[in-house]
Amino acid sequence: MAYVSDEEKEQMARFLAVMNGTPLPAATHTPRANHSQVNESVELAGPGVPTKRDIDAMANVLNKLNALTNDVAKDMVVESATSKVSRDAISTTRNNIGVKVGSYQIKINEDDTRLAGKKYYSIYHSEMGTIIADDVSLYETALGVVNLLNNGKYVNDIKVRQLFDADNVYTSHYMDAVMYKRKFRESQRKNSNKADLYESRYQASLNLCMKAKRDIKSIV
Questions:
Q1: Number of H helices, E strands in the chain
Q2: In contact, 114 and 91? CB cutoff 8 Å
Q3: Which pLDDT band holds residue 72 (cuts at 50, 70, 90)?
Q4: Burial (Cβ within 10 Å: 0-12, 13-18, ≥19) of residue 124
């Protein structure tokens, strides 16, 4: 990476002072003498008229600053290419069946008769067609699994299994909540003394659903 020395910074300040017709800044670095400098003719210039030495020094500094800028730009490109956030933003696209993330497709399905919610998700490799899962209840689960797979994890990875297990727990308690809600309403119509019991179980099942959803988010 190019490096701009303090001496070169002073040369830049001197050049700008000459161009602006302002007093020259005090030098803090003594220029290094060499044979060519000893034999060099002295140039006298008025305010706003830079000498050849000033121009050469400024050109040298600008070249180094340009190299620094290029290095920074290259670093930003490399960071962008390796950043997970950037990678996901580039590779995530919506299509007519759901969402494609990297090498995997999340397909959105709907079934009005499904007790665990009419909307559910399938996961498969978009190129090979390999099915990873075909009955996932939560989009958070599907997206978490796909992100892990795109980052080199395997289907039997512990985090992938934890996500699927938590989704199954969510599905089970969701179905319980649906069942107890129906029983609660039926008991209300019949003035049954079990209405309070079913309402309590319905609420408990909902709480367990929310816990499973929080577990999924914590794994992701």
A1: 7, 5
A2: no
A3: low
A4: middle
Three-class DSSP category at 93: strand
* Same domain membership, residue 113 and residue 61: no
Residue with tokens 């121009």: 55
pLDDT of residue 60: 72
The range of the structural domain enclosing residue 38 comes to 6-82
Number of domains comprising the chain: 2
pTM: 0.60
pLDDT tens profile 94-116: 999 999 999 999 999 999 999 89
How far apart CA 88 and CA 51 sit, in angstroms, is 54
Asked whether 201 and 180 are in contact (CB, 8 A), the reply is: yes
Q: Where are the alpha helices (DSSP H) in the chain?
A: 6-20, 35-39, 52-82, 84-91, 139-150, 158-189, 195-219
Percent of all residues in the chain with a pLDDT value above 90, rounded to a whole number:
53
Find tokens 């494609």 and name the residue.
100
Q: Residues 188, 102: one domain?
A: yes
Assigned token pair, 14:
């001197």
Same domain, residue pair 75 and 97: no
**Cα–Cα distance list, 6 to 25, 37, 51 (Å):** 13, 20, 20
